[in-house]
Amino acid sequence: MAKYRITLNMEYCRSADKSFSDGVEIASKLGYKWIEPMVHTGWGLLSEVNYFHSFSMEEDPLLMKEICSRNGVRVSSLSSHSPLMKPEAAVARLTRACVLASMVGCDFLNSDEMVKPDWMSDEEAHAAMHYTLKKVSMVAARHRKYLCIEPHGIYTKTSDGLLKIVRLVDSPWIQVNWDTGNSYLAGIEDPYDALTNVRDHVYHVHAKDISFEHAQREKGKVTGTPVGCACGEGEVDWDRVLSILDPLDREIFLSVECGTIDEAERSLAFLRKAIGSRLLE
Question: pLDDT for 224-236, tens place per residue?
Answer without folding.
Answer: 999 999 999 999 9
